[in-house]
Design a protein that fits this description.
This protein has one domain: ApbE-like domains (T-fold), CATH 3.10.520. An eight-stranded antiparallel beta sheet has the order 1-2-7-8-11-16-17-18. A three-stranded antiparallel beta sheet has the order 3-6-5, covered by helices on one side. Helices cover 28% and strands 26% of the residues. The radius of gyration is 19 Å and the shape is globular.
Length: 313
């Protein structure tokens, strides 16, 4: 492997989650990281529900009116609606009110780990079909009573866009971008492929004895109820909402990892699997998406060709 193919990596944090950039051209790592930071910043400015000045927040402040949106927000909204359609509604961007009702009202760093009781009501979310997006005109109507939360799909799309931007900034080679458990690849994989460690928590340190998989292209995403969770009156809650109930998903899986042709599709499938519960195994098999599902007791189910553990090196 030539000097320009030596792997180099940099870690950091943004939008309340971990960021890792790995490149095959060590000398261009700075350019890659700058491109990744720019994409993440632009996505945050477009759709963060934690910022009153985000484009999405401004639009939601005048629900019911048709609004012109930027190309980026149109893409983010389109990705969310595509995710809802592909998952048969298991991933739905109209969960905003339900997420807040469960206690996730601000940036996760501001969510208290423990607290008193809160009122939880079984109520289906409004439903993604109520959002009227016209991609050709770049207009959207968000009806009154609907609060959009793009956090699920936006992070995955940001990872994919960031990997593409980093590759362009490097002028070739290969790049891996991990954004809070959503991993996107672009360009040429290093010799032997990209080795990715799977875990419940994307912040977990990479260790020699961790289970890993090797991929050469596409994306890998993990959705987990083991992180971004909090307790209210001894009830454990988390951020993945079941649109059918408006409550945190209560299925058998604590973590699902999926490999797909792209990071966005992997994220949609992983999140939908957590929501779908027991039926997720057959659903993922039917889609031929290699997946690893971890039950609450730690039992692991591998489907659609997900390999048996490759531990260490």
């Amino acid at each position: 492997m030539g000097a320009d193919r030596v792997l180099a990596a940099v870690d950091g944090r943004a939008i309340g989650t971990s960021v890792r950039v790995v490149v095959t051209r060590a000398g261009r790592l700075g350019d890659a990281r700058a491109a990744v930071d720019r994409v993440i910043r632009e996505v945050d400015e477009a759709c963060s529900r934690f910022r009153e000045d985000s484009e999405l927040s401004r639009i939601q402040a005048r629900r019911g009116a048709e609004a012109q949106v930027s190309p980026l927000l149109a893409a983010l909204l389109g990705a969310a609606l595509r995710g809802a359609e592909l998952s048969d509604g298991a991933v739905d961007p109209t969960v905003g009110t339900a997420v807040r009702a469960a206690g996730y009202e601000g940036d996760f760093a501001s969510v208290a780990a423990e607290g008193g009781p809160i009122a939880l009501v079984v109520r289906p979310v409004p439903g993604w079909r109520r959002i009227r997006l016209d991609p050709s005109r770049r207009t959207v109507v968000i009806p009154p009573g609907v609060e959009v939360d793009l956090g699920c799909t936006a992070k995955a799309l940001a990872a994919g866009m960031a990997a593409t931007a980093a590759l362009a900034a490097m002028g070739g080679g290969g790049v891996l971008v991990s954004l809070g458990g959503d991993i996107a690849l672009a360009g040429e994989a290093p010799e032997g492929g990209w080795r990715i460690q799977v875990a419940d928590d994307s912040d977990a340190p990479i260790t020699p004895d961790g289970e890993t998989v090797t991929v050469t292209a596409g994306g890998v995403a993990t959705s987990s109820t083991a992180v971004r969770r909090w307790t209210r009156d001894d009830v454990v809650l988390h951020h993945i909402i079941d649109p059918a109930t408006g409550l945190p998903a209560a299925g058998p899986w604590r973590t699902v990892t999926v490999a797909a042709a792209g990071c966005l599709d992997a994220n949609i499938a992983a999140t939908a699997a957590v929501v779908r519960g027991e039926s997720a195994v057959a659903w993922l098999e039917s889609l031929r998406l290699p997946s690893r599902l971890v039950a609450h007791d730690g039992a692991v189910t591998r489907v659609a060709g997900w390999p048996e553990p490759c531990v260490g090196t």
